[in-house]
Amino acid sequence: MADPQAFVLSLRGVSRADFDLGHREVALVETEDEDVEGFIDLCLGLSDPAQGEAWCLGASWQAQGYRERLARRRRIGTLMGTQVWPAHVPVAQLVLVPQLYHSDLAEDDVVAEATALARRFGLAGLPTPTRETVHPGDLVRTACVRAFLGAPELVLIADPTLEGMAELGLPLAQAIGAVRDRGGAVLWLLGSLAAPAARFVAADHILRLTERGLVRAGRGP
Asked: Each residue of 115-138: pLDDT tens digit?
């Protein structure tokens, strides 16, 4: 078996999954109402598997301390809904601050990249009001900007609202393609492999998360 350090994400000997996601690869995983949160926590190093080992970006999560895990997660873009975003903070700040605080990029460069992504996803620019006053569809588009901003090496998507937004199919495929071109990888957890938002995404791995773990699956027409 190949060295887990060679992959962007690697789950080895984990009771519910044994899986490698390589550089420039995309995986679509249909979840079948299984424990999606628990699987996400394993991938992000928020919890450790009962057995086996979870690797991300060349290192074992279990071998990383708290600060090391935080630093590694900053290299991961996540798109998992906006309901947990603070209601009192302007949406634009929620998108920009992580990049401004954790990178050496100039503020003008971060804003320019975020604005370009916002337009790709159908926004005129980053919304400036707070979460509660922004249209739900625009919040999803803004979450896409946040996930792909800053050249993440891994993007993890798990947003049921996003799945039904067919109009985001093309911009998502383009953004995912850009991640691949940089040598990164994308893991998208879906309620259905037929989700309209994923219809243009070419996947290297098509799987289902079942009570038996990750199993290979086919993708319908």
From this structure: 999 999 999 999 989 989 999 999
